[in-house]
């Protein structure tokens, strides 16, 4: 059951970033507007999309899991601080907490790796 739990956790966390990256590609103009409204330079958007998609895919298959999870954990903390630090509205507070919770889960994944059902495990056995 442990191996299934690690796989399911990886897939659930990765799913969020894959969808977010694809959403940013499809709504590029709206995302740049949102970033600008928070004082974040729009030239960062391609890097954010690349991180979400590449690290999301890496975690999905369990390749370089520790690095990908660590990078996304840092991204979550930064995103929470930049975009959701205004607790005047409940949605912002919930999004802030979600970002920190995701960072926590990703840090656990970074500490323990992708588990037995991962490319990392398969490579280590070679």
Written overview of the protein:
The chain has 126 residues and is mainly α. It has one domain (2-124). Helices cover 79% and strands 0% of the residues. The chain contains six helices and no strands. It has helices at residues 2-26, 28-37, 45-61, 65-83, 90-112, 119-124. Helix 1 (2-26) runs antiparallel to helix 3 (45-61), helix 3 crosses helix 4 (65-83) and helix 4 (65-83) runs antiparallel to helix 5. The radius of gyration is 15 Å and the shape is globular. The mean pLDDT is 96. The chain crosses the membrane at residues 43-63, 70-88, 100-119. Belongs to the DoxX family. It is a multi-pass membrane protein.
Features:
126 residues, mainly alpha, 6 helices, 0% strand, globular
Briefly characterize the structure.
With 126 residues, the chain is mainly alpha-helical. The protein has 6 helices and no strands.
The number of strands is 0
Report the portion of residues in β strands: under 5%
Low-confidence stretches: none
Distance N terminus to C terminus? 24 Å
Structural class estimated from helices and strands: mainly alpha
Rounded average pLDDT:
96
Quaternary organization: single chain
How much helical structure, as a percent, in the residues? over 70%
Number of helices: 6
Q: Can you summarize the main beta sheet?
A: none
SSE order:
HHHHHH
Domain unit count: 1
> What is the rounded Rg?
15 Å
Overall shape:
globular
Family: Belongs to the DoxX family.
Transmembrane segments: 43-63, 70-88, 100-119
Keywords: Cell membrane, Membrane, Transmembrane, Transmembrane helix
Organism: Spectribacter hydrogenoxidans
């Amino acid at each position: 059951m442990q191996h299934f739990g690690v796989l399911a956790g990886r897939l659930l966390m990765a799913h969020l970033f894959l969808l977010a990256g694809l959403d940013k590609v499809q709504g590029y103009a709206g995302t740049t507007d949102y970033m600008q409204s928070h004082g974040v330079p729009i030239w960062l958007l391609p890097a954010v999309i690349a991180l979400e998609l590449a690290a999301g895919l890496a975690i999905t298959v369990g390749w370089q899991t520790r690095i990908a999870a660590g990078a996304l954990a840092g991204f979550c903390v930064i995103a929470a601080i930049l975009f959701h630090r205004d607790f005047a509205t409940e949605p912002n507070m919930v999004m802030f907490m979600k970002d920190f919770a995701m960072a926590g889960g990703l840090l656990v994944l970074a500490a323990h790796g992708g588990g037995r059902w991962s490319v990392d495990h398969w490579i280590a056995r070679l």
